[in-house]
Amino acid sequence: MSFTGKDVLCILDFTRNDLERLFRIASSKFEGDELRGKVIALAFFEPSTRTRMSFETATLRLSGNYIGFGTTQATSIAKGESFSDTVRMLDAYADVIVVRHRLEGAAKLAAELAESPVINAGDGSKRHPTQAIIDLYTIWREKKGIDNMTYGVLGDLRYGRAARSFLRALNLYSPRKVYLIAPESLRPKEELLDSLKMPWEFANLNDILPELDVLYVTRIQKERFPDPAEYERVKGSYRIDTNLLKNAKTSLAVMHPLPRVDEISLDVDKTEHAFYFKQAANGVPVRMALLSEVVA
Amino acid sequence: MSEELVVRRISNGTVIDHIPAGRALKVLKILGITGEEGLMVSLVMNTSSKKLGRKDIVKVEGKELSKEEVDKIALVAPTATINIVRNYDVANKRRVELPRRIEGILKCVNPKCITNAPREAARPVFTVISEKPLKLVCEYCGEYLTEDEVIAQLTGT
Asked: Whole-model pTM above 0.80?
């Protein structure tokens, strides 16, 4: 299907064919003038490094311009202006609106209010579709496919939007199996579990590590634990280092949407397992592909 | 009908029949009928029913239900039938049907949902994903709303 003028709100707005079309464009695209004369609004109501800067870079590499903000402190939102009014204003100024917001459903609301296409750059703790596309693209490119592999998704699967979007995205493919590795208090809610169409089960990392082709790691935030002692007890079980990876396949891809704190040891960076910097780099071509399709 | 023996016919208004036994008071509460409006209201609870075993009936003299009110009733009384009575005749009889989408009646239970943000233009909208047991999903944030939560919201219990 054509993405022209379409909103990008959820990874499940895409079909497998849509994604593979994007992958092909992303794998060939380094610069162009598809956004010449276009203004992209980057409305980041919440902090971001990679997502915002890769949208900026993608816009510049396609000869476009961007406006926007990365913090609300210097905008009228600090005076109490609503999100809805801010979106209406941006709609009058820009050809595409990219939104990040702490509230769930903010991007959908923006899409209802704006005539310009809206791209969800992460709203609340559930949806981050462009990150999921980047994750899938990285696997597709490096592993030459996404189906028939065994995945482990580790960390905060309850509140982390990248992991949750990635899990939903795998619904579009046919993984052999997906293991969910999380402390009990950070396991996904039933809304997500009900939506999973592939074989999955909860597991301990040590038990299943040798089976994995892809290990998707996310940060466990200390503040998610009501009892700090519980955090101290579990955090070691969710730390990846080269010693642990001795039990893994040599081809295991370790992924992370970043930022990481200490869940992946620095000594993994030098190994063939480290896919997370490739993911971060792929943010630009994937977002170039998406922007060029949306404004085509 | 045997209930006619205990509750007389009404001339104009609405008869809500086949309410699940014990939910008549919730239906009245959803309709906002407290008795202080001066409407004549008859209520039968736990009467026998061929279809349901036991059922409740509410008769409201002088009030025809709007679509939005019917939608609300469907959430707590999906088996109910609505009879609009004019001049002692049933002018319109229909079963309530749970709409596929519920707009603006219920609130999302997720405090981080945009529909709960003050001064934003999002009206809560839910898709019904299961009727028995009732389960809805918020179209904005994807959170479930269960039957217990729906009943609690609509009846304040």
From this structure: yes
